Amino acid sequence: MNIHLRTAFDSIKRSPFQALSAIFVLTITFFVATVLSILVYSSGKIIKHFETRPQVIAFLKDETSPEQISALQQRLSGDSRVKDIKYVSKEEALAIYKEATSDNPLLSELVSPSIFPASIEFSLVDLNFAETVIAEMRGEAIVDQVGFTANIGSQTALGDVVSRLRTITFYLRVGGGVLVGVLATTSFLVLIVIIGMRMTARRSEVEILNLIGATPGFIRSPILLEALIYALVGVIVGWLVTLILTLYATPSVVAYFGEIPVLPKDTLSFLAIFGIILAGELFVGTALAFLGSLLAVSRVKHAR
Amino acid sequence: MIKLKNVTKKFGDITALSDVSFEVDKGEFVFITGPSGAGKTTILKLILREVHPDSGEIIFDGQNLTEIPEKEIPQVRQKIGVVFQDFKVLSERTLRENVEVALAVAGIPQAEWKARVDKILELVGLEKRAELFPSQLSGGELERVSLARALVVNPKLILADEPTGNLDWDTADTIMELFEKINKEGKTIIMATHNREIIAKLKKRVIKLSGGKIVNNHEHSS
Q1: Which domains can be identified in chain A, with CATH numbers?
Q2: What is the ipTM of this complex?
Q3: From CA A263, how far away is CA A45, in angstroms rounded?
Q4: B201 Cβ contact partners less than 8 Å away, ≥ 6 residues apart
Q5: DSSP 8-state code for residue B21
Q6: CB-defined contacts A:B, below 8 A
Q7: Taking CA atoms, what residue in B is nearest to A201?
Q8: What is the pLDDT of residues B165-198, one digit of tens each?
Q9: Can you give the pTM of this predicted structure?
């Protein structure tokens, strides 16, 4: 084993409770950070889900020709506020109706395609455009009526849902960020205190190493490695606990939210998200260890 | 090998060394002697760049030590093996690890460590105590650990500060035999001591200090 790594492990073995307290604080920090990252991801997905479902339905007049429909579709395609444009014919509208009323066949037997208007459905890039776009659609000669996401309710209801979700996500991000910031600062301070204590305990060793020609880098290496061990163990344990809890909760979460993709359904995407979070946390953990140990070493040096 | 030119060093109002000049050639064994406070240890500290002279020059291995920047000091120290009166061994490391630390500091590949440590421990007669901790060794053995650590990196110069100061006569004699053996192998040694019996026995060049000045610099004549 590398001499610096051996020195770092020896140091941990000599004061196990200091090591445990550092690892414990770091684990809590990264556990909370991982949970918040997943919550932010899921809330983002919920907002996106509501924002991207077909929001505007333009019902067309019966006498509308295919050329006129095609012209309107093309115009909408060129509009940057609009996306996911879809034409629904009378027959398709009937099929949708039949599927929706499948539990009561009597209702579907009484209707024919002619009573359903053809329509053009589309989503908006941002709900703030809703009012303008709906007004423009009402002005189209071939459009009879304009509906706004009947499944959810009125325009105001959907706006409310999305705006409430946005507010929750905003507070989740800000509150979570502050909480993670406070925890990260606490971890950083604990790391500095423990490394400072290590440096003080190693003072005579440092003096001897200096006299036999050790470079500052050589002297710092075991301290840095020790801090890295704390940080990496904290990151991995915190992340792993969240992964296990999420895996455990996934069936219930997916069942509760139904079609809303709060968590990725395929394993690869699920692992990719956790992989990205782990990579980010490893980076932050390494930075904390580097900065903490450098600061502690320089403070002890100046205090001499 | 090493040359001091008009070196002066003061600690506050106290003059530790005043206009000291001498030269030590490669392969020489030189004693620096004198009463306590004469400046023996200060000379060793100056060579190690633990302290900086107020004036004068110290040339070692072609380098003026008074001019080298702070960051180059470790490289200079790696060329010098130091044996301390208070041993300065790492108390929480085994004897083998104490010697290995010097190899690690000098950047010697880990694959070479075992052979080099075994060889040096055999030279100082501690091969059977390699896995013991300093607290399990006697004063003489600790001095030999300090010597083994100094020698294992094959330094150009060995500085010894009162290496027999804490030892009984028999142990001191054994240690001095080791120094003599090492010197015969071509190593340059500068030893600060006030032990007249040792100086008399080894019959080497003696630089005598008093009040921070050289009062005598001669080959030993019994």
Answers
A1: 3-50+159-303 (no CATH), 54-148 (3.30.70.3040)
A2: 0.87
A3: 8
A4: B173, B176
A5: E
A6: 46
A7: B92
A8: 777 787 788 888 888 888 998 889 999 988 888 8
A9: 0.72
